[in-house]
Amino acid sequence: TRILPDLVTAVAGELYERLSRGGNVGLPTGRTMDPIYARVVELHRARPINPDRVQGFMVDEYVGLTKDDPHSYSYYLQQRIFGPLGITRIHRVSEHGYDDLIQSHGGLDLQVLGLGPNGH
After folding, report:
1. What is the dihedral sign for C-alpha 30, 116, 111, 53?
2. What is this structure's pTM?
3. Which of 18, 47, 95, 105 sits 20 to 30 Å CA-CA off 57?
């Protein structure tokens, strides 16, 4: 997936600023997000965020996969954004549903969504 460089810079900058302030952030997976997460990690290396102030919320997950399975969304996010930024308070979608999970932690400050070439 190709995203315009200016769009990557803008979205990554906004995401980095939100993470810098702390809060609850919902993050998606997928190739659309790869260049954005890479840029956020670059910004973090230049001026580290405080990961203790951030809670990450996953948008979805495959049923039956553990968080360490290389095919899971948990693994994807750990490799690309949570691990490099040091974010350890990560919430996976549970059997209770995403809305209940979010509400039980005070809601979201930002939800990022990707849109792939097929509209998904």
Report:
1. positive
2. 0.88
3. 47
Interacting residues of 44 by C-beta distance below 8 A, sequence separation 6+:
16, 19, 84, 85
Residues in the chain: 120
Report d(CA 82, CA 49) in Å as an integer.
12
Each residue's pLDDT tens digit, 19-65: 999 999 999 988 889 999 999 999 999 999 999 999 999 988 888 88
Instruction: Give the sign of the dihedral formed by CA 76, CA 80, CA 86, CA 87.
Output: negative
Residue that the structure tokens 């990557």 belong to: 8
Q: Is 5 left (phi over 0), alpha (psi -120 to 50) or beta?
A: alpha
> Helix, strand or coil for residue 119?
coil
Check if the beta carbon of residue 112 is closer than 8 Å to that of residue 10: no
Question: Which DSSP string do the residues of 34-74 spell out, in sequence order?
Answer: HHHHHHHHHHHHHS---GGGEEEEES---TT--TT-TTSHH
DSSP-assigned letter for residue 82: I
